[in-house]
Specification:
The chain is an all-alpha fold. It contains 6 helices and 2 strands; from the N terminus they run H-H-H-H-H-E-E-H. It has helices at about 5-15, 25-50, 55-65, 75-90, 95-110, 120-140, and strands spanning about 115, 120. A two-stranded antiparallel ribbon has the order 1-2. The radius of gyration is 17 Å and the shape is globular.
Length: about 150
């Protein structure tokens, strides 16, 4: 599994492990966190599958389910990935202005994490985003852009 998902999931599980297992409420809390761990793992897998299959709306929904309870700085990083995903959903709907704005916002969130963060090679991702922005500037009605690849370390 991808390191970003592992990091987010491990932080959720680590918090649950600090609760004494003696009380019923602690056991319930542990079960809840374990359930969240499994949900995050499933969401991550769904996001990658959907993103790679150009199902961008579904991919963004999967990322958001993890983003909602992610700690910083992972939360901001995930928001950047979500913005890239939604930008390509906008392109599928022929909204180049929305795509351009979201790619620009995503770049601002992802660049500080370069060259890599949480198992993702951020530098090539940012290069791909810049390339797509240049293409959209030069040819605003080019809807056939390939989405940036997410390179895993």
């Amino acid at each position: 599994m991808h390191r970003l998902a592992n990091l987010l999931l491990a932080s959720t599980l680590a918090v649950s492990m600090t609760i004494p297992a003696a009380s019923a409420s602690a056991q319930d809390s542990y079960r809840d966190r374990n359930t969240q761990y499994e949900a995050d793992q499933a969401a991550y897998n769904a996001q990658m599958r959907d993103y790679n299959a150009a199902r961008f709306f579904e991919a963004h929904e999967a990322w958001e389910s993890v983003w909602l309870h992610a700690p910083q700085p992972e939360k901001t990083f995930l928001q950047g990935l979500i913005q890239v995903t939604v930008a390509f959903h906008h392109l599928q709907r022929e909204n180049t202005l929305g795509a351009t704005r979201l790619l620009t916002a995503a770049l601002r969130k992802l660049e500080p994490h370069s060259p890599h963060f949480c198992g993702i090679s951020v530098a090539p991702l940012c290069d791909d985003i810049r390339d797509r922005l240049e293409s959209l500037t030069a040819h605003p009605y080019n809807l056939a852009l390939t989405p940036p690849r997410i390179h895993l370390l």
